[in-house]
Design goal:
With about 325 residues, this protein is of the alpha/beta class. Helices cover about 35% and strands about 15% of the residues. The chain is globular, with a radius of gyration of 19 Å. The chain starts with a helix and ends with a helix.
């Protein structure tokens, strides 16, 4: 029986064979050219300090009776927007219009050399809603997308109706544990990361019970390595770590006024930067379910649910239950 992640990434697995030591996967462009997404992809032009970029997104119409509402899905750092397909299907089936952007620096969007900020990503996401004539939307966000969702809700409160934060990072200020790391060191480390080491990293960081669930992400990363613009992709990817580190949102979360639901996996102890922290501090990091419950209790309209069977990938680990929980919350 195929694993949950394999089902969610059937397109990717069909496009490329599993990695073997004796094989070199077919290269793919850093904007995932030639890699099929589950829905048509459009692009919005944006600029960053004069640099012309484009932001990819999918705009999925309701497949059930339209309810006149829209949901924006915000992806995590290691994932293309296409991994939202199972959630998008459930939302569209319930009558929602579903907008699924690739943030600048990720997926099919441009990879800038310049550093971006959560304020940049929030501004472009708000501009996308304007472009699509969506005055207000619900937001469902995962991992790094949860940090962006908090900034979006705080900066553009009128555009965000309700928030679902699925296993978000940023529930603690990583600067309290992790010293600053030079970008040069991060580039060298990421450049030298083998497919096997990256898979171990995903299995460990995301508490994957099935190691094969990491294969689609590993495959995609290995194919990007063959691109002539890989160094540009690498710089953009490393810049996103620095963005997460230098722009904590934990202090802002209690100030979010919109109804907010944390959906956490009990096995999720992901904490960016933990390997760089002093050994005695590492065990104190990544108590994400507990942190979510504590933060929800400090919010005007926050609450948290914890799925005992799930890790960091809640919408894949517990797909039907996750979809049911989200739809119920959005309908309140």
């Amino acid at each position: 029986m195929p694993s949950r992640a394999a089902l969610a990434f059937a397109i990717l697995l069909a496009a490329a064979a599993p990695i073997r030591a004796a094989e070199t996967p077919e290269p793919i462009g850093i904007a995932l050219e030639g890699f099929a997404y589950p829905y048509p992809v459009a692009y919005m032009p944006v600029t960053l300090n004069g640099e012309a970029l484009r932001m990819a997104y999918m705009d999925v119409p309701p497949s059930g009776a339209a309810n006149g509402r829209a949901v924006v899905l915000l992806h995590g750092r290691n994932f293309p927007a296409s991994y939202w397909e199972p959630v998008a299907k459930a939302l569209a089936g319930a009558g929602y219009r579903v907008v699924i952007p690739d943030q600048i620096g990720f997926g099919k969007s441009s990879k800038p050399i310049q550093a971006t900020s959560f304020d940049d990503l929030g501004r472009w996401t708000a501009a996308l809603l304007d472009r699509l004539n969506i005055a207000q939307a619900d937001v469902v966000a995962h991992s790094m997308g949860g940090m962006l969702a908090v900034r979006l809700a705080r900066a553009y409160p009128g555009k965000v109706a309700r928030l679902v934060l699925q296993a978000p990072i940023g529930l603690e200020d990583y600067r309290l544990y992790v010293p600053p790391v030079e970008t040069r060191r991060l580039l060298e480390q990421e450049r030298g990361l083998s497919a096997e080491a990256y898979k171990r990293q995903l299995v460990s960081n995301y508490a994957l019970t099935r190691p094969e669930d990491a294969d689609p992400y590993v495959e995609l990363r290995e194919r990007i390595k063959g691109s002539g613009e890989y160094e540009r992709w690498l710089r953009s990817f490393v810049n996103s770590y620095q963005m997460i580190y230098r722009e904590p949102v934990a202090h802002e979360i209690p100030l979010v006024t919109q109804p907010t639901l944390f959906v956490m996996g009990a096995r999720d102890h992901n904490a960016p930067g933990r390997p760089f922290a002093p050994p005695e501090l590492r065990p104190k990091m990544g108590e994400n379910a507990r942190l979510a419950e504590e933060l929800a209790g400090r919010m005007p309209k926050g609450r948290a649910v914890v799925f005992e069977e799930a890790g960091h990938m809640v919408h894949l680990d517990a797909g039907p239950r996750f979809n049911e929980t989200v739809l119920k919350f959005l309908a309140e």
